[in-house]
Amino acid sequence: MQAEFVAPLPYYHLNNSPSVPISAAKTPHAWMIEALEAQARLTETRLPFVNDALTSAAEVDAGGVLYAMQDVHEYIIKKAAGKPAKHPKPSSIAKSKPRTTITKNRSC
Questions:
Q1: DSSP secondary structure, 34-54, as one string
Q2: What is the DSSP secondary structure assignment for residue 67, as one 8-state letter?
Q3: Alpha-carbon distance 28 to 13, whole Å?
Q4: What's the pLDDT at 16?
Q5: pTM, to two decimals
């Protein structure tokens, strides 16, 4: 009895698509190795981003400077439109308000 391999991501089932490995001149093993290498590269690329996020979260937890999302959003929109914009002022979690309006034509 042959064990079935269940991949966490969608993939071409090579037994049902015999022309795929033939046309690419790759064995099923080569396809798997290539996929693992690609995922390893993505992980290496993602690690600095995750580490930066964790460092930022630790700074916030330690009482670091915070900015209200609304102020930052207005600043970015004005800068992107080429208008003069003042830097947002530091805020605290207590002063931060949830955004209640939905901006139409948001580009981000």
A1: HHHHHHHHHHHHHHHHHHHHH
A2: E
A3: 9
A4: 56
A5: 0.42
CA distance 62 to 55: 11
Instruction: Quote the tokens at residue 61.
Output: 């937890």
Average pLDDT over residues 7-13: 50
Query: Stretch 28-34: mean pLDDT, rounded?
Result: 89
Instruction: For residue 93, give every residue at least 6 positions away whose Cβ sits within 8 Å of its Cβ, in sequence order, or none.
Output: 66
User: Is there a contact between 20 and 12 (Cβ–Cβ < 8 Å)?
Assistant: yes
Inter-residue contact 95 to 88 (CB < 8 Å): no
Tell me the one-letter amino acid at 39: Q
3-state secondary structure of 30: helix
Q: Distance between CA 31 and CA 104 in Å, rounded?
A: 44
Q: Which of 2, 22, 20 lies closest to 11 in space, CA to CA?
A: 20
